[in-house]
Amino acid sequence: QVQLVESGGGLVQAGGSLRLSCAASGRTFSRYTMGWFRQAPGKERDFVAAISWTGGGTYYGDSVKGRFTISRGSAKNTVYLQMNSLKPEDTAVYYCAAREGLSSRSRSEYDYWGQGTQVTGAS
Fold first, then answer.
1. CB 36 within 8 A of CB 19
2. CA dihedral in degrees (43, 19, 22, 120; nearest 10)?
3. Of the given ranges (8-12, 73-77, 97-101), which has the lowest mean pLDDT?
4. Cβ contacts of residue 65 below 8 Å, gap of 6+?
5. 22-31, 76-85, 104-113: which has the minimum mean pLDDT?
6. What is the per-residue pLDDT across 31-79, written as a single tens digit (0 to 9) for each?
7. Residue 28 pLDDT > 80, yes or no?
8. Among 5, 88, 89, 90, which is 20 to 30 Å from 62 by CA?
9. To the nearest 10°, the Cα dihedral for 34, 103, 36, 107?
């Protein structure tokens, strides 16, 4: 059974940094695109970042470009999201997701999801 488990969320002051981790198990994820999405209260789940199975391709949502960095561990079954210069509007539940195939910004194209981790950017 495929399982994605996020960790690293928390409360951080505006301008601070946080690093999220996602550990994948149950399959060989070396050929899976991994992504991060986030959902604020009352809003849709939005694309944050994605990384190709090679790790050579990274993609970001406009609101986080230049502040967030997605990366994969050497074993390919762990993905990280380094978040710098956090803003109050970054407050959301952050979800890790995986799909077999090319990178995508569309949440409907991801097959597996974690339970999410709360990130709160305090003003």
1. no
2. -30
3. 73-77
4. none
5. 22-31
6. 889 999 999 999 999 999 999 887 789 999 999 999 999 999 877 789 9
7. no
8. 5
9. -120
Residue owning tokens 């149950």 = 26
Cα–Cα distance list, 45 to 22, 55, 75, 116 (Å): 17, 24, 28, 11
In whole angstroms, give the CA distance from residue 28 to residue 9: 25
d(CA 38, CA 96): 9
CA-based nearest residue to 15, from 123, 93, 94: 123
